Amino acid sequence: MSILQDFDYFKPTTIEFAIDLISNNKNATILAGGTDLIVNLKEGTATPEIVVDIKSLKDLKKIEFKDNCLIIGALVTFTDLLESVVIKEKFPLVWEVSKTVASVGIRNRATMVGNICSAVPCLDSGPLLCVYEADVNVRSSKGKRKIPIKDWFLGNKKTALKHGELVTHISIPFPNQKTGGCYVRLGRYCGEDLAQVNVALLAFANNAYRIAFGAVAPTPLRANKIESFLNGKKINDHLIEQAKELIPDEISPITDIRATKEYRMHMAKVMFERGIKTAVERLNGDGLEYGESLV
Amino acid sequence: MSQYTILSFLFHSIRVELLFIINYIIMNNFSTIGKPIIRQDGYAKVTGKAKFADDINYPNQLFGVMLRLPIAHAKIIKIDYSEIENHPSIKTIITSKDIPGEKRIGIIKKDQPIFCDEKIVTPGDVVGMLVGESERELLNLREKVKYEYETLPVLSDATKALQPDAPLIHPELETNLIIHHPLRKGDIEQGFSQSDFILEQTYTTQTIEHAYIEPETVIAVPLEDKKGVKVIGSIQNPHSARNVVSSVLGLPLNSVRIRQAELGGSFGGKDDTMNILSARTALAALKTGQPVKIRYSREDSILESYKRHPYRMKYKVGYNEDGKIKAMKIDILADGGAYASMSPFVTWRTVVQATGPYEIENVWTDVRAVYTNNPYTGAMRGFGSPQPIFAQESIMDEIAIKLNKTPDEIRRINGLRIGSITSTGQKLVKHDVNLIKVLDAATEKSGFTEKWKTYKQNSETANNYQNKNFIAKQEDSLFLEKGDFIPSEKLLKKGIGLALSFRGCSLGAEGIDAAAAYLSVQADGSAYLISGLAENGQGLRTTFSIIAAEVLGISVENIYYLEHDTGIIADSGPTVASRSTLMGGGAVKVAAEIIKVRLEDTLRTEWNLKKDEKVVFKGGEIFVATKPKRSIQFKKLCNLTYNKGISLSTIGWYPGPKVEWDEEIGQGSAYFTYVYGCQVAEVTVNIGTGEVYVDRVVAVHDPGRVINLMGAQGQVYGGVTQGAGYGLWEEITTEEGSIRELNFDQYLIPTSKDIGEIIPQFVEGDEQFGPWGAKALGEPTLELTAAAIANAVRNAVGIRHFSLPLNLEEIVLKRKLSPLDLKRGSAL
Known about the structure:
The complex is a heterodimer.
Chain A: E1 8-10, H1 15-23, E2 28-31, H2 37-43, E3 50-53, E4 63-66, E5 69-73, H3 78-83, H4 85-90, H5 92-100, H6 104-107, H7 112-118, H8 125-132, E6 135-140, E7 143-148, H9 149-152, E8 153-155, E9 158-159, E10 166-173, E11 179-186, E12 197-204, E13 209-214, E14 221-222, H10 224-230, H11 237-250, H12 261-283
Parallel strand pairs in A: 1-3, 2-3
Antiparallel strand pairs in A: 4-5, 5-10, 6-7, 6-10, 8-9, 11-12, 12-13, 13-14
Helix pairs in contact in A: 10-11, 11-12
Chain B: H1 3-27, H2 42-46, E1 62-67, E2 74-80, E3 92-94, E4 104-105, E5 112-113, E6 119-120, E7 128-132, H3 135-142, E8 146-151, E9 177-185, H4 188-193, E10 197-204, E11 217-222, E12 229-233, H5 238-249, E13 256-260, H6 272-288, E14 292-295, H7 298-304, E15 311-319, E16 325-337, H8 343-353, E17 362-371, H9 386-402, H10 407-414, H11 435-446, H12 448-461, E18 492-504, E19 514-521, E20 527-531, H13 540-552, E21 559-561, H14 580-607, E22 615-618, E23 621-624, E24 627-633, H15 634-643, E25 649-655, E26 674-686, E27 692-704, H16 709-728, E28 734-735, E29 738-739, E30 755-764, H17 778-783, H18 785-797, H19 808-813
Parallel strand pairs in B: 1-14, 12-13, 16-17, 20-21, 27-30
Antiparallel strand pairs in B: 1-7, 2-6, 2-8, 3-7, 4-5, 9-17, 10-15, 11-12, 11-14, 15-16, 18-26, 19-20, 19-25, 22-23, 23-24, 26-27, 28-29
Helix pairs in contact in B: 5-6, 9-10, 9-18, 13-14, 14-15, 16-18
């Protein structure tokens, strides 16, 4: 299938020129990995006047850890994340999420920033960034802006990004205490598939918990009720059973071509249980290695 | 016993022994047969050098783009081209008005239009074709065509097709019934009344897509005098395509020449669709005088191509305490979709094989195929067998469990043996009836019986998922220590299951069964070879080259397999029904033997050999068996023969033996020989998520004779994987006739990660048909896997699933993910 529509293609070498281009055109779109955009162009669901390819902006291709904060640039691919020592050592949950994204071929091109800009409900990066309480950093001709992840996702494929803004990087604060994390995702088979349901969990040494679901609402969401129910308590099977009862209040899955809402609801419970146990086990220095399959 | 008799007995047994030894030596004295040979087209394919149809382009080439209505069933009132007809990018618009010959085609019923004119009956239907230089422009202009139509009620549920108020898909036929195959053997009512127990169950299977890697592409080039056309494409059966194109163009058969490009997979799927696309390009090429290409996107391909029939199968089985099945009543409904296509043949194989490989005295079977507005269904690998095998092998296991027997036990009690009478009244003779042999081999290799008993016990003692959670050491303490959690392994249940089948070889009573091969040995000992059956990616060229090489005692590399072209080889019927090695290979062997005799005659004269001196062709040399020291090189003998003015080119012809069939009662010798197969699947089921992982499949088949070991193993690996896809993931669903899975993001085919170890094992014999007794292997490898997996899942979780595929939702919620409330299989 070829791209049937016409558009102008730019490949700026400075971030200023890139911002210029997108501010001065009402219908501009950014091209980084292109794993979503090219398909959308082919299918006619994206109809931009100009495509701004940012792959020459080398500054955006960096993973940096400074001042207790992780920077993931807009051109960092999931393969880059998997190959990074700092990610593997300090943010093993980011590593675990990256490992589950699509396939090697897609991971070689797709970026985490692109993932949150596409903002489909089942995105892998969504629950992860929610539990880390990450920030999305954008630049425009007016300056820089930091958007907390909780305010980033506005709906299915809708974000807080405004006209003329370019996402430069994601920043993730390093938790100031010991954590155990877990990401559970279920596809229908071992090949490339979107998540039916996904959940990211972070357990802290002081018995605090952060839990976020994906693919069960228009945006990824934090499970606030479950978190406050569990906070301060040591996890056990009885608590988990009670927490599972709260899940229907937190999420609102739909039936689509990949799964029914009943199956998604069932799986959210199963995956929450598996995830919270593993996160706690990892917090205690035990349990499965990060990246090992959980479902 | 007199001395004479003792002597004679001794002599006889020595003779038998000797014969056995000689036979053994001959059998194991092949130079090439049965060895692992790398396929001839392998290198070009893995390096990207092979030319597929879309790699072929001509100067002045035009493209064709299809016009379709966005619905399933409508009467066409008007198609308005006014916005585009004078556009410079439009060379011409082809519709049914441009057809000089037959406007409708079909192998049995001529119900399928090349271009629809009065109405459309399914969303894949095409009403016209835009032709122009730029495919991109055409795709944009296509949006500007306006359609005026009257929508008609959509029939999407096959079970309602025969109701009196059902909309008629083809009103001129006055019924939605495509075909009804009855089969009557014995006295069914008496059979049930003599049975100790009766079990009734209903099973359903889904629609699936062939999912060949290369979507359809075809190019037609007008011949210089404009009286004919040459068509090149990803065509499964070049001769079938030629017959269709010539009838549509109204030209004699010799004015249409079809050449097959390298084929990127077919699995039975590049037959009708490619014949129609060939006709459309040919029409456009003759109208414009320029080459015209059609190339489909994946979406076009899935939308328009035919699928495997979904079946609804009611089985009623009467059986006795001792395990003997007394009676079987089967009622099967197949959704044929919008056109008859191959439905009559597909369902015919079903009626022959629906009881499975069991000898049953009283059988009453009805198989019906009906029209609906769904995508039409036709030939797909398996051809009416994977569906009943799922039902019949599931119900056999259920009977075994009810009688407290093991699955292999119940099959040994009822299985076909030499001299058994099949449900069609055919006595199984004149071939190795290997059913019990393959069953024994597969169960032994997999340790079936012990594992099955252990897993069955596990499934019965296990708590179900919902209640599994509490194992606190102290009842009063709710706080668990680390390690007190139920380990995830407990969610994983192991199971083992088997499936058994018999399969009629080749076309049987379906049609004319004969094949040709052309062999031309050159003066330097190299050779051209081609058969009338076409390479479909299964490795036929290599298999046929091996057969010729074996006869002539030369290396496979000496043989160049020609590109398939209807102009140079005789119509040999379609490349279907796993008949290539048997029929085409038989023809190759005949051709090679004719040439061998001519070469041998030359040598006999030259060396002045006596009649009883046996001449051997081996290792590129020819010698007398008893005096191997004196030899002549093959190439020298070819040169010698050529220089004597003797032809080294010939056509080999291999006709299949006659079969008989009475269609009123479904009785007769349906096929001239059969193959037998047994697969054992071992699975792990995650009872929390519903995931089923195929750990291991032992696949035992009796192809008669293995020609290329590597090719045979490849067939098993591919077939098992495809069969697992049918069992676990693949499914086409429709909404008002429209397909929801138009690409591989939604239609899931298994990846290498989804399948565990596959262990092929072959039972060989000395059969009378086919080259050195080679029968069939392709389809048996994929018809069993889904049924074996379903039985393994039953063994693991203790619950029977009645509907394929066994995807996550089916396992966890026992429901199908489908917008329609389709009737599912059930215990009753």
